[in-house]
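Continuing the series of single-chain predictions for the mutant panel. This is the parent chain; the variants come on the following pages.
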Amino acid sequence: MMRILLFLATNLAVLIVASITLKVLGVDRYTGQNYGSLLVFCAVFGFAGSLISLFISKWMAKMSTRTEVISQPRTRHEQWLLQTVEELAREAGIKTPEVGIFPAYEANAFATGWNRNDALVAVSQGLLERFSPDEVRAVLAHEIGHVANGDMVTLALIQGVVNTFVMFFARIFGNFVDKAIFKNEEGHGIAYFVTTIIAELVLGILASIIVMWFSRKREFRADEAGARLAGPNAMIGALQRLRAEQGIPVQMPDTLNAFGINGSLKNGLAGLLMSHPPLEDRIEALRRYGQR
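Parent structure:
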């Protein structure tokens, strides 16, 4: 798991800061009881949080993982990495992304960026050292698949919709507590502001279940794209290698997990908040795909 909690955390932070700022400035009061105006108000700021997260996603990914972008290859391995990404991007019909390596022992990789022609693909040092060239190429193909499928943009749009309704229902709940429980008859009282912030946090976490469900679905599509670009057997081999290494603790920021290659799904409620389906399910899906 690698790309999402960075996106989600940034998005949630933007929402909270925006909400507090709007409350301090008194902008909330202008929406009143007009639910239509309130919905438009929430949509504007809900999508703003999501789009800001999208536009700074590449910068945030580089900073949080200490990714070093390869501008001039210094070794034959870096040269091979650049050439492989360029070849895969050309086959996928997109502009060659920036290519980077981040210092981590665990095998992992991620792709991010605000559009398919301005992306970043990065792999861990551990993956490069322990995976075969075919397995590395399959992992890169998977990440290129995320980019070519426009997963970051689609995620941002879904997050924008989720943000809108989180803000909308948080304010309705805050108004209910303020008026019905605390009997405040003049404007918005302190109960409204406190309840709204708490409701945004709780609803934001619950809404993440929707975003993570989307992430798991897109993971299967990225696997299929990787199979088309690198071959089903190579893609299956890379996932099997990842499964063998799952005992190694993963230290990548959870926010990047959604568009990463690694990750496992736990059972129960925790499973609903995971960005990746089980590797066994992904391998089985690829075997069915290879038989078509």
